[in-house]
Write a structure and sequence with these properties.
It contains 9 helices and 6 strands, in the order βαβαββααββααααα. It is α/β, with parallel strands linked by helices. It has a 6-stranded mixed beta sheet with strand order 4-3-2-1-5-6. A hairpin with an 8-residue loop joins strand 3 and strand 4. The longest helix is centred in the middle third of the chain and has 18 residues, at 138-155. The relative contact order is 0.16. It binds iron/sulfur cluster. Iron/sulfur cluster (SF4) is lined by residues 69, 132, 139-140, 143, 213-214, 217-219, 289, 293.
């Protein structure tokens, strides 16, 4: 079935039909009931593909929100803006508005032009909650979940949330009420399908896999960090500064650092300098942040 939209001129694919056992008609559908569906748009290729599919196939009222951390690649911001305009998604850009203790993080609305580029929301979260890392993974909560939910609360509607995790990433699917995973539970979409879709489009994200998300995200593998240190060492100036300024926030007896195995930014550089890249092994894998930083995932 071909679903005509105002963007049909830019691509030639039909909406991929869900397997027969998972659909009633194959026609445009409601996902998770008939109400509002919040689409958490991470700025990655998979998330953008899910949003495009939902826009074409879902009859739910879609609210598409992108939460900018201030440490995204410029190419991510350009991609979000382009996807929004070309696919007519009405993306709402939000950033964390960190409030004093006891109030909780709210949101502020920005756009492509006014979005933070120097880590301002990220720094505000570190100043309030301390350095995030595997033991204290609050950056996703405060930079993604909280501002997006604050925005949705301002709309005053009941809603469910669609997360862009694919069927081949099922280990990342969490079990929470009111969260749906259309690409894993409704349509069965894998990475190959996503890549094939974008190979047909006149534009794409333009980032290598190791460059996605917050540029230096602490969830990336050591191998990716070493690649990034070789390519763009300056992107680590920010986490180095955060560790120096806020390492003792909520950690008065010690000092919190970002990276795995209690490594600081300087430790990463020293390891690379010492040639540790040769010793990397199969256990050096991403912690679920290879393409996107999703609001709800099992990590
Ligand atoms: S991409 Fe990484 S550093 Fe950025 S908010 Fe997500 S988990 Fe935190």
């Amino acid at each position: 079935m071909t679903l005509k939209t105002s963007t049909d001129h830019i691509e030639t694919l039909d909406v991929a039909e869900p397997p027969s056992s998972r659909r009633s008609t194959g026609a445009p559908c409601y996902i998770a009931g008939t109400g509002t569906l919040l689409v958490s748009f991470s700025g990655g290729l998979t998330s953008a593909y899910m949003t495009w599919k939902l826009k074409r196939a879902s009859r739910n009222k879609l609210v598409v929100v992108f939460a900018n951390t201030g440490q995204e690649n410029e190419k991510t911001l350009m991609f979000v803006d382009k996807v929004d305009k070309v696919f007519d998604l009405g993306v709402v850009w939000v950033e964390a508005d960190v409030k004093p203790k006891g109030i909780g993080t709210k949101h502020r609305i920005v756009d492509f032009e006014t979005a933070s580029r120097n880590g301002e929301p990220f720094e505000a979260v570190m100043a309030q909650y301390g350095i995030s890392n595997k033991a204290y993974p609050h950056c996703t909560r405060e930079l993604k979940q909280a501002p997006i939910h604050s925005y949705m609360k301002s709309l005053g509607v009941e809603y469910q949330t669609a997360i862009g995790i694919r069927a081949d990433e099922y280990r990342r699917v969490g079990k929470k009420a009111r969260i749906v995973y259309p690409l894993a539970d409704y349509w069965i979409v894998d990475k190959e399908e996503v890549n094939e879709f974008w190979s047909r489009q006149p534009f794409s994200l333009g980032l290598e896999e190791h460059q996605g998300n917050c540029k230096w995200c602490w969830k990336k593998s050591l191998k990716k960090h070493f690649m990034l240190i070789a390519e763009t060492p300056e992107i680590f100036d920010f986490p180095r500064k955060m560790e120096a300024f806020y390492g003792k926030v909520r950690c008065p007896e010690g000092r919190r650092v970002f990276f795995r195995e209690n490594r600081s930014t300087d430790d990463l550089f020293a390891l690379k300098e010492a040639g540790a890249g040769r010793l990397l092994n199969a256990f050096d894998v991403d912690a679920g942040c290879s393409e996107s930083c999703e609001m709800y995932e099992a990590i």
